[in-house]
């Protein structure tokens, strides 16, 4: 159909002539209500943005002399962040002459990787950037499925299940 004829037809119906595929030969046009069409496109874009997963990068900092208990405590935070679906940047900061002992930092990083296990994938290997040794963990989607199948231990006693002799009535 000719362009002029299509425009006349659209105006007689009270609608608009919109080009759907401009790269096609010949270009494809459609008779429609353009305001309604733009509204529907905006609505689809908003729905797509709503369903989009946002990945956040959290950072956990260590020092080469960090004690084992502190490392355990911080690794628990790393595991929690990974379970929530966030990426985690692990930084080992060196002060002064500590940078000459980068092997201590690499040993700490290997320990952290072993402790995280299969819950996190090393997305960016450990590298020195000035006086900071850093690596990035990303959540492992396969580990989440396996973790959900783990059964809760049955030996956990709740207060209501505790024997009566263990409760004291003193006030």
- What proportion of the residues is helical, as a percent range? 25-40%
Evaluate the radius of gyration. 30 Å
H/E element sequence: HEEHEHEHEEH
The CATH architecture of the largest domain is 2-Layer Sandwich
What characteristics describe this protein?
171 residues, alpha+beta, Translation Initiation Factor IF3, 2 domains, 4-stranded mixed β-sheet, two-stranded antiparallel ribbon, 39% helix, 25% strand, rod-shaped
Describe the structure.
This protein has 171 residues and is an alpha+beta fold. The chain has two domains: 1-34, no CATH class; 57-147, Translation initiation factor 3 (IF-3), C-terminal domain (Translation Initiation Factor IF3, 2-Layer Sandwich), CATH 3.30.110. The chain contains five helices and six strands, in the order H-E-E-H-E-H-E-H-E-E-H. The strands form two sheets. Strands 3-4-6-5 form a four-stranded mixed beta sheet, covered by helices on one side. A two-stranded antiparallel sheet has the order 1-2. It is rod-shaped and about 80 Å long. The termini are far apart. The model is unreliable at 148-162 (pLDDT under 50).
């Amino acid at each position: 159909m000719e362009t002029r004829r299509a425009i006349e037809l659209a105006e007689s119906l009270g609608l608009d002539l919109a080009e759907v595929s401009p790269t096609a030969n010949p270009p494809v046009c459609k008779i429609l209500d353009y305001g309604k069409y733009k509204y529907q496109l905006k609505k689809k874009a908003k729905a797509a943005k709503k369903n989009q997963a946002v990945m956040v990068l959290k950072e956990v900092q260590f020092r080469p002399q960090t004690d084992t208990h502190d490392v355990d405590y911080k690794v628990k935070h790393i595991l929690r962040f990974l379970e929530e679906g966030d990426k985690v940047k692990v930084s080992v900061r060196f002060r002064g002459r500590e940078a000459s002992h980068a092997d201590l930092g690499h040993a700490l990083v290997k320990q952290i990787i072993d402790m995280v296990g299969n819950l996190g994938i090393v997305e960016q290997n450990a590298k020195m950037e000035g006086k900071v040794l850093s690596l990035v963990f990303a959540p492992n989607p396969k580990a989440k499925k396996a973790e959900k199948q783990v059964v809760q231990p049955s030996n956990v006693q709740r207060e209501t299940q505790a024997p009566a002799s263990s409760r004291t009535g003193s006030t």
